[in-house]
Amino acid sequence: MTESDRAVVARSLVQQCLYGRLQVKPPTQDSEAEWVEIQRGMVIYICFFKGATEEIIPKIVSTLLNVKLCETETGRYVSVLDLPGNVLIVPQATLGGKAKGKSMQYHANIGKEEGMQLYASFVAQCEKELSSSSKCTESGVLVKHGTYGNRQVLKLDTNGPYTHLIEF
Fold first, then answer.
1. Per-run averaged pLDDT (10 residues), the chain, 168 residues
2. 130 closest CA partner among 97, 75, 88
3. Nearest to 41, CA basis, from 68, 62, 15
4. DSSP alpha helices (H): ranges in the chain?
C-alpha cells in the first residue's frame, strides 16, 4: 500500500497569526463568556476521522510544530518552535465534511467520545513538545485550546492569508 492509498485519519488546517482569541464558554445569565488567547504564533484546527488512534498523535504533533510555516520579520520561514510562537488549538469537526447535494455530511468523522480522547491527547502532546523546547520556555510560549464538541467563537488577526491543509 502506498502513502496515497492509505486512508486519511486526521485533517488539520494550520494558519499563522498575529493574535487569536477563542471563546471556550458562552456567556450565561450568571457569568460572562470565557476566552483563551494567544499572541503571535499558529492556529491549528484539527479533525479526527474513523480509524484514527493514539499512535498517530506524535506524528501529527511533530509535523505541525516543525513545519516551516511561520514568517519572521526578515521574511524567512521557520517552525512555530523556532519562531518561537504560541499555539491555539481549535477542534474543528467541520473539516471532515463532505458535500452531498446541497448539504454537508460528516459520516467519516470519529465518534464524539473517541474524538475527545484523541483531542485531549493531541493538546497534551503539543504542550509537552513546546515545554521541552528551551527556546519556547524562555520566551514564555503558550498553548491554548478550545473545548471539544462545543460551538466556539474565534477572533483572529493573521499576517496572510496563509493557510495550509495537512492530512495524516
1. 73 96 94 96 97 98 96 92 97 95 96 97 98 95 94 90 91
2. 88
3. 15
4. 57-66, 112-131, 134-139
In this structure, what DSSP letter does residue 56 have? G
Phi, psi of 83 (to 5 degrees): -60, -50
What gap in Å lies between CA 65 and CA 135, rounded to an integer? 13
Nearest alpha-carbon partner for 135 in 168, 100, 86: 86
Cβ–Cβ < 8 Å for 110, 48: yes
Helix axes 57-66, 112-131, angle to 10 degrees: 50
Q: Kindly calculate the radius of gyration of the chain based on its CA atoms and give it in whole angstroms.
A: 16
Residues with Cβ within 8 Å of residue 12, at least 6 apart in sequence? 44, 45, 46, 47, 60, 64, 95, 165, 166, 167, 168
Q: Of 38, 42, 143, nearest to 83 (Cα)? A: 42
Task: For residues 82 and 85, give the distance between their C-alpha atoms in angstroms, rounded to a whole number.
Answer: 8
Give the model's pLDDT for residue 160.
76
C-alpha cell at 20: 487569536
3 state DSSP class of 81: coil
